[in-house]
């Protein structure tokens, strides 16, 4: 595995990197489907809804004219989702439930041991595509040096503006920063700016973009061994 040398700053994605959002499936879809809830329906609809959300998030990230927050993206996405499955449920209420679910979700098992290994060795920041209301008690997770939140920056991670803020804030060369995340948005823009990138591939997926990460891991616990 390729080593990440001369790293001074570690930047971390939040959802699906530190926090397991899939724990929201039952919480959200029991509410949406009521007496028609089944695990099979919930998993199927969750996957389809996420496809719509990620597509709309991608479009929002590339829109330089107007920033659309995640709550609005959830609402618009679930308007389409509920229309597809002919479900009579208020998309605005659904967006609120999804945001609440994000705040309630637990950590992946490797998160706390990972933080134990890197604390006091690196400056660690959080770089996340979310609204402030989705952060919950983030201060209880880890003492991050800085929170870079898309709602505050008015830019999502697919927009180079997001990671330019990170570079400018720390006044270091991009290659001194390692960003770790689970999605394309965690790799494409930062890699193009010269930031070192690590794809957290927990589910053994295939990378599907021409811009490739500098390294790939299946667990956060592999990362300390990649650093000097």
Question: Would you kindly provide a written description of the structure presented here, covering whatever features stand out?
Answer:
- The chain has 228 residues and is α/β, with parallel strands linked by helices.
- Helix content is 40%, strand content 12%.
- The chain contains eight helices and six strands.
- Strands 3-2-1-4-5-6 form a six-stranded parallel sheet.
- Helix 8 links the parallel strand 4 and strand 5 (196-200).
- Helix 1 packs across helix 2 and helix 2 (39-62) crosses helix 3 (70-84).
- The longest helix is centred in the first third of the chain and has 24 residues, at 39-62.
- It is globular.
- The mean pLDDT is 95.
Quick take:
This protein has eight helices and six strands. It has 228 residues and is of the alpha/beta class.
Q: What are the main properties of this structure?
A:
single chain, 228 residues, alpha/beta, 40% helix
The helix fraction, in percent, is 25-40%
Q: How many DSSP E strands?
A: 6
* Strand-residue proportion: 5-15%
Series of H and E elements: EHHHHHEEHHEHEE
DSSP helical segment count = 8
Strand order, sheet with most strands: 3-2-1-4-5-6
Assembly form of the protein: single chain
Biggest sheet character: 6 strands, parallel
* Average pLDDT rating: 95
Q: Shape, please?
A: globular
Distance between the termini: 13 Å
Low-confidence stretches: none
Structural class: alpha/beta
């Amino acid at each position: 595995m390729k080593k990440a040398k001369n790293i001074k700053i570690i930047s971390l994605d939040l959802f699906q990197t530190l926090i397991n959002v899939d724990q929201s499936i039952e919480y959200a879809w029991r509410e949406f489907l009521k007496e028609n809830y089944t695990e099979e329906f919930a998993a199927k609809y969750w996957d389809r809804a996420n496809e719509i959300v990620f597509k709309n998030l991608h479009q929002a990230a590339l829109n330089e004219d107007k920033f659309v927050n995640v709550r609005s993206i959830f609402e618009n996405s679930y308007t389409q989702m509920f229309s597809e499955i002919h479900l009579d449920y208020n998309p605005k209420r659904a967006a609120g439930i999804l945001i609440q679910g994000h705040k309630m979700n637990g950590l992946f098992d490797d998160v706390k041991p990972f933080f134990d290994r890197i604390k006091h060795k690196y400056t660690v920041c959080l770089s996340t595509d979310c609204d402030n209301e989705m952060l919950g008690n983030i201060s209880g997770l880890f003492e991050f040096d800085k929170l870079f939140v898309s709602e505050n920056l008015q830019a999502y991670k697919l927009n180079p503006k997001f990671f330019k803020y990170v570079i400018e804030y720390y006044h270091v060369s991009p290659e001194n920063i390692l960003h770790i995340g689970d999605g394309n948005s965690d790799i494409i823009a930062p890699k193009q700016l010269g930031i070192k990138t690590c794809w957290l591939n927990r589910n053994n997926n295939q990378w599907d973009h021409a811009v490739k990460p500098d390294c790939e891991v299946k667990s956060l616990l592999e990362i300390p061994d990649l650093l000097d």
